[in-house]
């Protein structure tokens, strides 16, 4: 049983998952999150395969996730006149169970809030790693020293930048941006709904627009070089999307008009984190989830986050020396996280040429698509999941 004080930066998915396990192993856990409160809503995330389910069952949250799962959404790709071109089953995109990101984050937060210290509305500004611990300076709170620090703060991780180096050294822009706008069509559906919905996607070269119908959540995905915009300036981000889709037909004009009034709006690049040379740990600092092995819309991010949290906490429970635990975590997750580096959703969903769109549509209708789906299922289980000590802090 451990008594060290640890800091986790980020209260999305990886952060609370890690907080759960570290608390069970006796660590005194503090979680700092820049947002003022747990973030609601968001896009749907999914889990697939025995590995993901095993970790969630060991956390005691599988049944609650299943009870609050979304319905399944199939996607029909159409031409400008609404005629069907190809079909992508929601059974592939939604895994074994799909849940809104905000709902999953809330489940994990509620499991840890009573025992872990959560500090909302603040963030890390400086880290000084010493032999006796990591001195952490905050944007608002007083400086504190922790035995270990974990970055679970996403692809644009501040902890990674402070401990490892500039973002440009580890994050590769994949040539696309994506935007999710509007409330999910499942946000007002009864928990555990088994309803099946159909979204429609429309492509032109380098652009995809997906709508589940009037007032449903929208997805935009488009090619673009790295853009310079303020991450907190939503209005300028809306203009970026509007300009990227100006002049398109189908339902796009209606979608853009609705988007202007949606409160729920998120724009970001499709990016891939590559920590192959440095590993996910440095000194007393470690990265978990998207901060270490993120690949936007790659299909494995949430599963990797919960498995990574389970592994690093378990290794720390087995070893008194964090350097041994960190080395084992690096070795285990470097192999497993390779699945995150093998996909580029932008090239598949928004091909840059008309020929590429036609080829994608033919692929979706072919037996090869079913083989790729099976590969995805196999990859999610490609890890020897250790049965770490099931210790419970007093």
UniProtKB/TrEMBL annotation:
PANTHER family: MONOOXYGENASE (PTHR46865:SF2), OXIDOREDUCTASE-RELATED (PTHR46865). It comes from the Bacteria. Gene3D superfamilies: D-Amino Acid Oxidase, subunit A, domain 2 (3.30.9.10), FAD/NAD(P)-binding domain (3.50.50.60). This is FAD-dependent monooxygenase. Keywords: Monooxygenase, Oxidoreductase. Residues 5-317 form the FAD-binding domain. One of its GO terms (molecular function) is monooxygenase activity. Pfam families: FAD_binding_3 (PF01494).
């Amino acid at each position: 049983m451990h008594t060290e004080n640890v800091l986790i930066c980020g209260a999305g998915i990886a952060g609370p998952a890690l907080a759960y396990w570290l608390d069970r192993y006796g660590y005194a856990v503090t979680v700092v999150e820049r947002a003022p409160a747990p973030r609601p809503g968001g896009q749907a995330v999914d889990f697939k395969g025995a590995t993901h389910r095993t970790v969630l069952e060991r956390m005691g949250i599988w049944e609650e996730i299943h009870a609050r799962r979304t319905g399944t959404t199939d996607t029909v790709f159409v031409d400008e006149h609404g005629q069907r071109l190809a079909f992508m089953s929601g059974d592939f995109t939604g895994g074994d169970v799909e849940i809104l990101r905000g709902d999953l984050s809330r489940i994990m937060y509620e499991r840890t809030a009573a025992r872990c210290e959560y500090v909302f509305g603040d963030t890390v500004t400086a880290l000084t790693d010493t032999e006796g611990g990591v001195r952490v300076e905050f944007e608002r709170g007083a400086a504190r020293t922790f035995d270990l620090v974990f970055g679970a703060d996403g692809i644009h991780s501040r902890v990674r930048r402070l401990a490892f180096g500039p973002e440009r050294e580890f994050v590769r822009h994949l040539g696309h941006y994506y935007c999710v706008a509007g409330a999910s069509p499942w946000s007002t559906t009864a928990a555990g709904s088994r309803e099946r919905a159909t979204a429609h996607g429309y492509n032109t070269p380098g652009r995809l627009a997906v709508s589940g119908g009037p007032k449903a959540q929208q997805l935009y995905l488009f090619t673009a070089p790295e853009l310079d915009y303020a991450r907190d300036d939503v209005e300028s981000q809306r203009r970026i999307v509007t300009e990227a889709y100006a002049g398109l037909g189908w339902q796009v004009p209606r979608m853009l008009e609705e988007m202007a009034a949606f409160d729920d709006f998120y724009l970001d690049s499709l990016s891939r984190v590559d920590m192959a040379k440095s590993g996910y740990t440095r000194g007393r600092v470690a990265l978990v989830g998207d901060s270490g092995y993120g690949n936007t819309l790659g299909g494995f991010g949430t599963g990797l986050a919960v498995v990574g949290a389970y592994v690093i906490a378990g290794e720390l429970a087995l070893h008194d020396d964090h350097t041994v635990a960190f080395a084992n975590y690096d070795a285990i997750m470097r192999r497993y996280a390779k699945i995150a580096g093998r996909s580029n959703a932008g090239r598949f969903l928004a091909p840059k040429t008309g020929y590429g769109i036609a080829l994608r549509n033919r692929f979706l209708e072919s037996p090869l698509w079913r083989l790729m789906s099976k590969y995805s299922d196999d990859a999610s289980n490609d890890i020897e999941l250790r049965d770490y000590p099931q210790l419970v802090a007093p």
